Amino acid sequence: MNLINKIGVIADSFGVGVRGGLVKAKEAGADGVQIYAVRGEMDPANLTAQARRELKEYIASLGLEISALVGDLGGHGFQDKTANPAKIEKSKRILDLALDLGTNIVTTHIGIVPEDRSSGVYYEMQQACEELASYAHSQQAFFAIETGPETAAHLKSFLDTLTTKGVSVNFDPANMVMVTGDDPVQGVHILKDYIVHTHVKDGVRNRETDPRNIYEALGYQPMDHDVISRMVTSGEFFKEVPLGEGGVDFNAYFAALQAIGYTGYLTIEREVGTQPEVDIRNAVEFIRRYK
Questions:
Q1: Is 256 exposed, middle or buried (0-12, 13-18, 19+ CB in 10 A)?
Q2: Segments in the chain below pLDDT 70
Q3: What is the largest CA-CA distance in the chain?
Q4: What is the pLDDT of residues 130-173, one digit of tens each?
Q5: Cβ proximity of 131 and 93 under 8 Å
Q6: CA dihedral in degrees (242, 268, 153, 114; nearest 10)?
Q7: Which of 125, 131, 155, 169 is surrounded by the most beta carbons within 10 Å?
Q8: Hey, CA dihedral for 47, 66, 73, 242, is it positive or negative?
Q9: d(CA 106, CA 95)
Q10: Is the pTM of this model over 0.90?
């Protein structure tokens, strides 16, 4: 297949801190890293200009670069009008940090896009994303929405309402397989004009459920929140598995990315498991077989 894409790793997946994760990523053979920048030592408020320069230099000294920062602020995404001003402001500061560190991409979740375009939640999400898109576009940068909470077609219809592509897509095939049952290959072609970053992850869907039971949604209450939470954590709905062991057809997925001319990062995400370093190293080798 001769993939030309660089391989990334989410440094936090190793569970050994930022700098420890950077070293582990280099040892695993990655070209770049994605780093969470929401709280703790990577919160933009905790990094002075000098600290940013030093971190950028350290990453470069390892022969790495940053593929993206993670700026997911959790909760209901950008569905809540009262919470949005603070979340928008912090998202902008995370993007500023990304640019200081040498990347122009911040990945995030915005909440589930409602089917009803006339709903108040849809409007608030649209307004928030329009502001974020405008800010990112002014910096020649992107906030990249992670796929999974809704189908690719519905996400595209929402993105098409924005006036710039400053809000685009971080394509995660496993989330689509595990939650909506959407076809990642078809999704790549549907979202081809918006994909600026990707995740390489695999999973299986064990039981169909409303995506709102997986991702928080404003105004939606599962019948029994505790039961739903146990079902999510137990893997009754879905399970993330090592690459090649789940429902993602990587031959077709990588071929689809090639077909649309995607040349960005393939970033490995491993959110579960008792041996993340082993799984990540195996994932790097898995991708290399396509090069």
A1: buried
A2: 217-234, 273
A3: 52
A4: 999 999 999 999 999 999 999 999 999 999 999 999 999 999 99
A5: no
A6: 90
A7: 169
A8: negative
A9: 6
A10: yes
